[in-house]
Write a structure and sequence with these properties.
The complex is a heterodimer of chains A (about 250) and B (about 140). Chain A has about 250 residues and is of the alpha+beta class. Chain A has two helices and eleven strands. Chain B has about 140 residues and is of the alpha+beta class. The two termini of chain B are about 20 Å apart. The chains are: A alpha+beta (about 250), B alpha+beta (about 140).
C-alpha cells in the first residue's frame, strides 16, 4: 500500500513537473515502468540544464597520482597522441561508466524480480535483482558489473552495487578500492525523459561521496544495433599512445 | 532524434572543449585527438573495401596522385549505430565505386583520417553521424 501511495504521489509530481517544464505533453502512466531504449543527452534541444557534479576530493594518498595521470592524459591529447584506454582496446566499460557512453542508447528491460540493462556500446549487460539482501562487499567476486540489488523508493529505482574490480576504469578516471559502493537513483523525469543519479562512495579513496547525474531521452520503438568490437583498427604503441592502423591496400 | 553532437566532427569539437575545462567525457571508443580537427584534406578515389563493422565503419580507397601513383587511404567513420541513426545504410557503398571524401587527416601524417563529408558516385552526400555538412567554413 505504501508503495502504491508513493507511486501515486510520484505520478502527481511528474505531471506537475511535466506541465511546468513543458517538456512533454503525454502523461506518465506508471513511474515504475522504465522499460525501453534511452539515449544519453548532454544538452541540446529538449535536454534539461545539466546538474553540476559534486566536487571530487580524494584522500591525500591517492590525489597526486590521479592528478598526474589526468594531466598526462590532457598533455598527450593536446599533442595529438591520446593515451590508450580500456575503451580504445575494446575492453568493457563496466559499472557505472557504461551507463553513458557518447550517445549510445541504453535498453532497460523489466521482468518479475529483475531489471536488466543492456548497452548498445559494446553490448554490455548488467542485471539488477529486486528486493533481495545485498551481500557483503567481501563476498562478491570483483568484476565489471559487481552485484546490483534494486528497490523501489516511491517512483525511484534505487540500485546498490558492490564488487566492482579495481581494474575497471571509473568516473573521470577515478581510482577506487574494493570498498567502492555505487548507488544509483533512476527515475522518470517526464513521460519520455529519465535520469540516473549516480553516487560513488569509497571510504578508502574518497574524502566524501561523489555524485553526478545522467539524463536520457526515450527512443520510441528503437531497435538496438549490434555492437561486436571485432574490427578494432586502433592499437596501442610502445609509448601507450592509441593509434589508428592504416592499411596499404 | 537528436544525438548529443550533430556529428562525429562536432563530437570532436565538443570533446576538445570539455577537455579544456578538465572534464573527461566518457566518449566513444577512443579519443579523436589523433585527427587534425582544424585542417581538412579532400581525397577522390576508388573504394577497395567498405567495412560496416564495430567499433568503426571504414572506407578503404585508392587515391591517384598527380604523377599517377596510387596512394591507399584508410578513412574511419562513426559506428554502425551512429551512422544508421543519421540515415546511412550498410549497403551505401560498394567496392569499385568512385567517391570523394573530405577528412580530418591523421596528425602524424600517415594516409588516414576521420570522415567529415562523403560524396557518393551519384552525387549524394553523407555526413559522419549527422547531416552532411553543407558549408566547410561553417563547421
Amino acid at each position: 500500500m505504501t508503495r502504491h501511495i508513493a507511486g501515486a504521489a510520484a505520478v502527481l509530481f511528474l505531471s506537475v513537473v511535466t506541465v511546468l517544464n513543458g517538456q512533454s505533453t503525454s502523461a506518465v502512466a506508471d513511474p515504475h515502468n522504465i522499460t525501453g531504449a534511452w539515449e544519453p543527452m548532454r544538452g541540446g534541444p529538449g535536454a534539461p540544464p545539466p546538474t553540476p557534479p559534486s566536487p571530487i576530493v580524494l584522500k591525500p594518498a591517492f590525489a597526486p597520482d590521479w592528478q598526474a595521470r589526468r594531466a598526462a592524459q590532457d598533455e598527450a591529447t593536446k599533442r595529438g597522441e591520446p593515451l590508450a584506454t580500456g575503451g580504445s582496446q575494446c575492453i568493457p566499460y563496466g559499472v557505472p561508466t557504461m551507463m553513458s557512453i557518447a550517445n549510445y542508447p541504453v535498453e532497460i528491460l523489466q521482468t518479475p524480480g529483475q531489471v536488466t540493462i543492456i548497452t548498445e556500446a559494446f553490448s554490455e549487460v548488467r542485471r539488477v535483482y529486486l528486493d533481495r539482501p545485498q551481500m557483503k562487499v567481501e563476498d562478491v567476486p570483483p568484476g565489471y558489473y559487481g552485484r546490483s540489488i534494486g528497490t523501489w523508493d516511491g517512483g525511484t529505482l534505487v540500485i546498490d552495487t558492490v564488487g566492482i574490480a579495481e581494474k575497471v576504469a571509473g568516473y573521470q578516471s577515478l581510482p577506487h578500492s574494493p570498498q567502492l559502493r555505487v548507488t544509483e537513483r533512476i527515475r522518470l523525469t517526464g513521460a519520455d525523459t529519465l535520469e540516473d543519479q549516480v553516487t560513488l562512495d569509497d571510504p578508502i579513496v574518497l574524502e566524501k561521496p561523489v555524485t553526478y547525474t545522467l539524463a536520457y531521452r526515450r527512443l520510441p520503438k528503437y531497435e538496438m544495433v549490434e555492437f561486436v568490437c571485432d574490427n578494432n583498427r586502433e592499437y596501442t604503441d610502445d609509448k601507450g599512445v592509441v593509434r589508428m592502423k592504416v592499411l596499404d591496400k | 532524434m537528436r544525438p548529443r553532437c550533430a556529428s562525429v566532427s562536432a563530437c570532436l569539437l565538443l570533446a576538445g572543449a570539455m577537455i579544456a575545462v578538465h572534464d573527461h567525457p566518457a566518449g566513444a571508443h577512443h579519443s579523436f585527438a589523433m585527427f587534425d580537427s582544424v585542417n581538412k584534406t579532400t581525397i577522390t578515389g576508388t573504394v577497395t573495401r567498405f567495412e560496416w563493422t564495430n567499433p568503426h565503419v571504414l572506407i578503404e580507397m585508392d587515391v591517384p596522385g598527380q604523377a599517377g601513383a596510387i596512394t591507399h587511404w584508410s578513412v574511419e567513420l562513426g559506428s554502425p549505430s551512429i551512422l544508421q541513426r543519421s540515415g546511412w545504410k550498410f549497403s551505401d557503398i560498394k567496392a569499385g565505386q568512385k567517391v570523394t571524401a573530405i577528412i580530418n587527416p591523421l596528425r602524424d601524417g600517415r594516409p588516414g583520417g576521420m570522415l567529415y563529408r562523403l560524396t557518393l558516385a551519384d552525387g549524394s552526400l553523407r555526413g559522419n553521424g549527422g547531416p552532411p555538412p553543407a558549408d566547410l567554413a561553417a563547421k
